[in-house]
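User: I'm writing a short report section on ligand binding and want a predicted complex to refer to. Could you take this sequence and iron/sulfur cluster and write out the structure as tokens? A short remark afterwards would be nice.
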Amino acid sequence: MELMEPCLGPVTRAGCDSWCPNSRAGCWGCRGPADEPNMEQMKKIMEEYGFSEETILDRLECFGGFSSLMGKGNTK
Ligand code: SF4
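Assistant: Sure. The structure tokens for the complex follow:
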């Protein structure tokens, strides 16, 4: 996020060795959510960097893995 790129890394399942952030791109969460993702904290951090709700939701919806966490107060 220091590069002003939204990043789902903090709430995404591990195992890819952070390939995208290590290549200077934000994580899109392609591996799906971590076991206990702290969505509120991720949203707070994204907002601190100026990312809109729309941007956050767009990224969460991209691969569909986060759909079970949406609409339950986790992203609003
Ligand atoms: S988008 Fe996928 S491959 Fe890239 S850092 Fe995130 S989980 Fe890893």
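A remark for your report: The CA atoms of residues 32 and 64 lie 8 Å apart. The mean pLDDT is 89.
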